[in-house]
Amino acid sequence: MAPSPSNPPQLHEQDKDKSGEMFLTGRFQEVPVKPQKEFSRTTLAAGAVLWRGDLSDLDTVTVACIHRPHYDDWSLAKGKVDPGESLVATAVREIKEETGYDIRLGKLIGKTVYPVKKTTKVVYYWTGEVTGGEFTPNDEVDEIRWLPIDEAIELMSYDLDREVLAKAQKRFRTPADARILYVRHARAHDREKWSGDDNLRPLDKKGRRQSEMLVPMLSPFAPTRIYSAEPDRCQATVAPLADELGIDVQVDARFGDNAWLENMVEAQRAFMDVVDQGGVSVICAQGDVIPAMVAWLSSQGTLPLDGEINAKKGSTWVLSFADGQLTGADHIPTALPVQ
């Protein structure tokens, strides 16, 4: 049957430039609460712009161009979400399976959207620094070329991938020297039904699952320090991650709601002390201080955040800093699987 308005042509992966869209604008990126329901018949995928080199000298930076024999094309590393995964977990798993590389995730670049057969394929891309591993040709990827970004853009088979690389290049021009994974504690037992000290109110069943799922979502950012506000529910939220990484949780009351209300300047100083250490750190805090702190960081930095600053239980703000100023922010509303 010939294609017609009632019987549109079937588009495939290699047709993605024909009707594709890009959502790659801005240094603030936000994953929807239910990304699997954002479009009709969504197929979710995730990947990364793999890079190596020294971001302080962009002439040394090269990115990975992936050749897929099935399509005979050059593209970026990505793959579909498996049941029980977050988008972050998908990105690192697919990259390991396709390329053999271990990566440290950085900035969320955004997403591309295009029709494939009867579904809408939505692909989220991060930057990913290669930290180890080795490529072995396989059925999915038979060749990888490491090229400067301008040359990689020329080699790419699709405009959508070229745009992703161009946005990655912009992020590389302002590299983060510190990154904070700012976590709202997981769900706890109902405050109204708890008669004891509120600091001792524990996580409920869903909260314990959220805390466990934070492990595969935050580990790929390779944090080296974990801080927590004083309440047990904050400490319990990051305990599985601390156990997985072999890091002690440093408890500091200045990261909590009460500290923000009682001595805002000291709470801000505590946060910036962590930023000043550089590298990647986790701070687990509460629902009042997180939106207020992010708003303050925005007002002090180079990244205006004009809309509502959400901080649901179990969510994470990935905050990027350069020279002590907020330069990028990614909001991941949940650690629970997206499908």
From TrEMBL:
Coiled coil: none annotated. The keyword Nucleotide-binding does not apply. InterPro entries: His_Pase_superF_clade-1 (IPR013078), His_PPase_superfam (IPR029033), NUDIX_hydrolase-like_dom_sf (IPR015797), NUDIX_hydrolase_CS (IPR020084), NUDIX_hydrolase_dom (IPR000086), Nudix_hydrolase_domain (IPR051325). It comes from the Bacteria. Transmembrane segments: none annotated. Keywords: Hydrolase. Residues 41-169 form the Nudix hydrolase domain. GO terms for molecular function: hydrolase activity. Pfam families: His_Phos_1 (PF00300), NUDIX (PF00293). This is NUDIX hydrolase. It comes from Corynebacterium stercoris.
